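Q: We require from you a single protein entry containing the residue sequence and its fold in token form, and nothing else.
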Amino acid sequence: MIEPNIEPVIYTPLTRFTLSWFNYQTTKCAGYELDLYDCAMRGSKTNAKKICWKQYHDFMECVKGWTQLKRYVEMRQERRKQGRPYMPPPPADVIPPNNPY
């Protein structure tokens, strides 16, 4: 369930570069990952699955987007069933230039 914490044995100039390789701290899911690790640190390694299942599911939802995909599929099916056309995209000046989503 929870990935092991990998700490550098030898600190080199490349160490800072590799700090975000095995986690989600540079993504939008950073807060969920921290909540999961905070909860897991309060309990033991064996009890973390039982205690922190809510935080784990929130984190996995952020990473995988299962509920969002399910909602999208249901909306698309309903739109096809009603025979409604898709809405036109918004004008380009409304969307910010550095939109991460």
